[in-house]
Design goal:
The structure is a homodimer of 209-residue chains. The first copy, chain A, is of the alpha/beta class. In chain A, the strands form two sheets. A seven-stranded mixed sheet of chain A has the order 6-7-5-4-8-9-10, sandwiched between helices. In chain A, strands 1-3-2 form a three-stranded antiparallel sheet. Chain A contains nine helices and ten strands. In chain A, α1 crosses α4, α2 crosses α3 and α7 packs across α8. Chains A and B meet through α1, α5, β9 and α9 of A and α1, α5, β9 and α9 of B. The structure holds a DNA duplex (22 and 22 nucleotides).
Chain lengths: 209, 209
DNA sequence: AACTGTGAAGTCGTTCACAGCA
DNA sequence: TGCTGTGAACGACTTCACAGTT
């Protein structure tokens, strides 16, 4: 529990979480690293190693008790209490994200959206109020929003980023294909759709893997 | 050029591509690994190593000639001639993807969309015709579509996947949070938004990195 | 007997450091 | 001299293999 935890392990923790959450809802009691690994198409060793970075959650001889493990992972990931999320930029992608059910069920709540368009400002979009950019600071602070999904045009990405960081946002998921420049203490992660497609294209043209 | 090329290298190739494409449009002639690395916030060594897997593109003493390098990478990534892409599932996310400008400029063309909704079938959405699921096979074969962006509900993901693979799709970008089961020869890649968010959440709660 | 937790070994990817060319 | 291309050293992540627990 004292060693450095690989990034990859943390990413996989999310995958375990979704799977275990599902299993717990199905009423599954215990599960072995082998069964869980099979479900996720990975090796049992990997599952055990990953979990062991955070503690000893399993029972030798039987496996892991699913409801407890879900709780533990939720705690590690900081999901015990719903996290408040803002969507900044309500174009097609932003609207899709604001409506995405996958987030809510897993402890993320979109509590505000932002856009520049006067047609959108002041209206509820998919049940969530849309504010103008000038209210960024006020709303983020008032509602205590910690995370943002950024889907604004590339030209204004950096400007908007500075504004939301100043307002207190601690984590950003960035959907523009521009690399974000954030101060220490703020975590940013990029989702680059075009890059994903290009990797696919490469793998299609070759026969490796 | 005979050795196995790391996956990570291929992924970065996409990043180099976008950057170099931009530079070439700006009229940049030559660039050193150092300058390119600075632009992308990476190390020059990494850039050179990555490129060297595919050949010797640079000139010692001066650097790389941008227009040529762009061409070379486009060729490696299979982007010389536009690739045809279908969007399957025209909910919010699918609609956003179909309209996403970032794809077209880089050699991907969305030439068909598919949905189950009678309100959408037969209409053009963002300039692209929307077909019913029963036409999947016909349209994909007729138009020679090679790649698909999958944004259908989890319940039908596997079923739809089988259908499009049977129709000849060779690469799939999967946006549902379900792991795809594809035959050998087909490359699938998952974009898992909720997982991304959860990793962020973890990094927010700790102070490492 | 079944399964976990974990050092040790192995594999994969990155960084170093320098030889070689323009 | 300036910068590429690349083996070699290093570091990160994965897999192995087994001791330990129920």
């Amino acid at each position: 529990m004292k060693k450095k935890i690989p990034d990859k392990t943390v990413q996989r923790l999310s995958v375990y979480y979704r799977c275990l959450y599902f299993l717990s809802q199905q009423g599954t009691g215990e599960i072995s690293s082998k069964s869980l690994a099979d479900l996720l198409e990975m090796k049992p060793d990997q599952v055990r190693k990953d979990l062991s970075y955070f503690g000893k959650f399993g029972k030798r001889g039987s496996g892991y008790y699913v409801p407890d493990l879900v709780q533990q992972i939720a705690k590690i990931l900081g999901l015990e209490h719903g996290r408040k999320v803002a969507v900044v930029g309500m174009g097609n992608l932003g609207t899709a994200l604001a409506a995405y059910k996958g987030f809510e069920v897993l402890g993320f709540n979109v509590v505000a959206t932002f856009d520049v368009s006067p047609q959108k400002i002041g209206k509820k979009i998919r049940g969530v109020m849309c504010y103008g950019m000038k209210d960024l600071n006020k709303v983020i602070k008032e509602k205590n929003i910690e995370m943002a999904l950024l889907t604004v045009p590339p030209e204004v990405v950096q400007e908007v980023t500075s504004a939301i960081v100043a307002a207190g946002i601690k984590a950003i998921l960035n959907f523009s294909s521009v690399t974000l420049n954030v101060p220490k203490g703020v975590k940013a992660s990029d989702v680059d759709l075009a890059s994903e497609l290009k990797s696919l294209s490469y793998f299609m043209t070759t026969s490796n893997r």
